[in-house]
Write a structure and sequence with these properties.
Elements: H1 4-12, E1 18-23, E2 29-35, H2 38-44, H3 53-60, E3 64-69, H4 73-87, E4 103-106, E5 114-117, E6 126-128, H5 134-147, H6 159-163, H7 171-174, H8 188-203, H9 206-222, H10 226-245, E7 256-264, E8 267-276, E9 279-289, H11 296-314, E10 330-333, E11 345-348, H12 353-380, H13 384-397, E12 405-414, E13 417-427, E14 430-431, E15 437-440, H14 449-467, E16 474-478, H15 481-493, E17 501-506, E18 511-514, E19 517-521, H16 528-561, H17 569-579, H18 582-587, H19 590-597, H20 599-608, H21 615-624
Parallel strand pairs: 7-10, 10-11, 12-16, 16-17
Antiparallel strand pairs: 1-2, 1-3, 4-5, 4-6, 7-8, 8-9, 12-13, 13-14, 13-15, 17-18, 18-19
């Protein structure tokens, strides 16, 4: 039932783009979302049955709804992102705070310093980044200081102090690491030229700097100033080598950004690449955690909005903006069509060519980042992966304890004959093949899966009780409500119901059934919980079918070959050894049979299989094939 307060709010929500906020009874924001059509999106939470229990729990906790109307979908995206970072709602995805990443700062002062910082101060300084790796940023800074000897001191370089000789050059000047603006050894215009080149290198505009350095080198050489030319050449080589290490993609690819992802169930790994002048100058991967079974499109959109807004906040340098104030259109390469619009962005989903190749490279980086994280976590805590899966299963299936030992049962028969069953066992979410068991159905005649299930459940757990062996934490029944009810009936007789958790899985839609609950649970197809249940169910099916075929084939040989008058067990086994199956025996020519077992027996078998009263036999042969 929808509360009256929510009903009244739903009637007032407009059909405009905007952002909605859900509040709980305490007045705390628990979820923030965006929508192109607020009314349709918000109403959908209350007008349909949700397969995800997490979404159902969210809806049950909504006590109030507020919304903000904006003029465009782009504004809704940005506003949603701001709200999420400000309020950190429980059911929203939270990206890592960008303040933890380092930035390269070009300080707003007369002779600017260039240094690494984690704090952004609104004083007119220019910040580049953020850089996902401190080592990357430090390496870049060291190279820049080799190229351009700027100061790193914090002196107040007012002109009157310089004119009065207030400062003396320090050791950095004498070793060639600084041009000493403190005593007027370099004028402000020349210093500003170095800062301008530093900005170009950081932005990735390296070719322009290389061209300038080459022209200066040639000019010095023409004036026979070989020492100065050699000094510039060393810096030229240093910068060119740095550019080569940034992985040149193509001479035809210019400035663009690339986003890709690797989806791993609850974790979603995004890779971001920035390309300037055909070279990858930045690659950044990060992990996102699902909260409400968000789609890949929703998670990728959120990542793009976050980084796009971060980069726009950073674009305070206007040195490259044209006088007509027209902004160039930025191209972003993505792996899927996204329902988002930015005024200055063109989204491209490549189908072939070099853009597709760079997208695939980005995806490999995202996948590699996932593998590295998983490996690192395994090294730190070898049992972490198992604990995470078991805890996830406990939460998804609402179990009282971790399902460290799981046992799964499956029945097999052919038209009521050769009835068998199989049990597979998983320990810590992995197959324990020494714990697999076969069962021949002894007390049931005819095709009765429910009664067969009762027999094997009774035999298995009666024996464990009698022998004082460890009971499983979870029983999985391959079947729907009927088979589950049969198993529950036996557990009740044995006094184990409530002590062992039990579920059933229906194969057609992979529905999970709980005792006494007619409504099944639909688990996310990507979840590790469902993958473990499917694995143990498939193992039980495989293990049971293997045993069933052996028994069926053995029984068929006895009933159809050994019952032929004049054909004994030795002859039947000889035929099976040569022809591999009863079907092949039936289809064999008279000459082939006579060659294997002799003329007399071959003629008997040949005539037997060509009689017209063996329809049931043919059905069995088809089953074996």
């Amino acid at each position: 039932m929808i509360p009256d307060k929510i009903k009244s709010i739903l009637k007032t929500i407009p059909s405009d783009p905007g952002v909605y906020q859900y509040f709980d009874e305490k007045g705390e924001i628990i979820y923030v979302g965006k929508a192109k059509n607020l009314k349709r999106r918000v109403s959908s939470y209350f007008n349909k049955q949700h397969q995800s229990r997490k979404v159902s729990v969210l809806v049950s906790r909504i006590a109030d709804i507020r919304f903000t109307v904006v003029s465009s979908e782009m504004e809704a995206l940005l506003l949603e992102n701001n709200f999420i970072k400000q309020y950190k709602p429980r059911y929203n995805i939270l990206l890592k705070d960008d303040k933890t990443y380092p930035w390269i700062c070009v300080k707003n002062e007369r002779f600017p310093r260039v240094f690494l910082t984690r704090k952004k101060v609104n004083d007119g300084s220019i910040y580049f980044g953020p850089y996902p790796s401190v080592m990357t940023a430090k390496t870049l800074l060291e190279m820049l200081r080799q190229l351009y000897p700027i100061r790193n001191c914090k002196l107040n370089l007012r002109q009157e102090y310089i004119d009065n000789g207030h400062y003396r050059p320090c050791l950095e000047f004498h070793v060639g690491n600084c041009k000493a603006p403190c005593d007027g050894s370099i004028d402000e215009d020349e210093y500003r030229e170095m800062i301008l080149n530093i900005k170009k290198v950081i932005k990735g505009n390296i070719q322009e700097v290389l061209r300038d350095m080459k022209s200066q080198m040639m000019a010095h050489a023409s004036r026979l100033e070989f020492e100065q030319a050699q000094d510039i050449k060393e810096k030229y080589d240093l910068l060119e080598n740095y550019h080569a290490r940034s992985v040149v993609c193509s001479n035809s690819l210019f400035d663009m950004e690339v986003f890709s992802y690797d989806d791993a169930g609850n974790s979603f790994y995004v890779n971001y690449m920035k390309i300037v002048e055909g070279a990858i100058i930045q690659s950044h991967s990060f992990e996102m955690k699902r909260k409400l079974d968000e789609t890949a499109e929703e998670l990728l959109t959120l990542a793009i909005v976050e980084l796009h807004q971060m980069n726009n906040e950073n674009c305070t340098d206007t040195s490259n903006v044209s006088t007509n104030n027209k902004r160039s259109l930025k191209e972003i390469i993505v792996p899927m069509e996204l329902e988002m619009i930015f005024d200055d962005v063109k989204f491209t989903v490549p189908k072939r060519g070099e853009k597709l190749e760079i997208l695939e490279l980005s995806h490999r980086n995202a996948k590699q980042y996932r593998l590295e994280l998983e490996k690192l976590r395994t090294l730190v805590d070898p049992e972490r992966h198992t604990k995470r899966i078991l805890n996830q299963m406990k939460d998804d299936l609402h179990l009282p304890d971790l399902p460290k030992v799981i046992e799964c049962f499956d029945n097999s028969n052919f038209q009521g004959d050769y009835a068998v069953a199989a049990m597979t066992q998983f320990v810590d979410a992995k197959p324990n093949k020494s714990g697999y068991r076969h069962f021949n159905i002894k007390t049931i005649e005819g095709p009765n899966d429910f009664a067969s299930m009762e027999e094997i459940i009774f035999r298995r757990y009666k024996r464990l009780l009698d022998e004082g062996q460890r009971l499983p934490d979870l029983i999985v029944i391959d079947g729907g409500k009927g088979q589950l009810s049969s198993a529950v009936k036996i557990l009740q007789q044995l006094g184990l119901y409530g002590k062992i958790s039990i579920i059933g899985i229906a194969e057609k839609l992979e529905e999970i059934y709980f005792p006494g609950d007619s409504i099944p649970l639909y688990i996310d197809k990507r979840s590790e919980t469902l993958k473990v249940i499917q694995h143990i169910r498939d193992e039980a099916h495989r293990f049971g079918i293997t045993h069933h075929r052996k028994k069926f084939e053995k029984g068929f040989i006895h009933s159809e070959l050994n019952d032929i008058k004049g054909i004994g067990k030795h002859t039947a086994e000889k035929l099976m050894l040569e022809l591999k199956s009863v079907k092949n025996i039936k289809e064999a020519s008279l000459e082939t049979l006579e060659k294997i077992v002799g003329k007399a027996k071959g003629k008997i078998i040949y005539d037997f299989f060509r009689r017209g009263d063996f329809n049931n036999c043919m059905n069995m042969i088809r089953f074996l094939s």
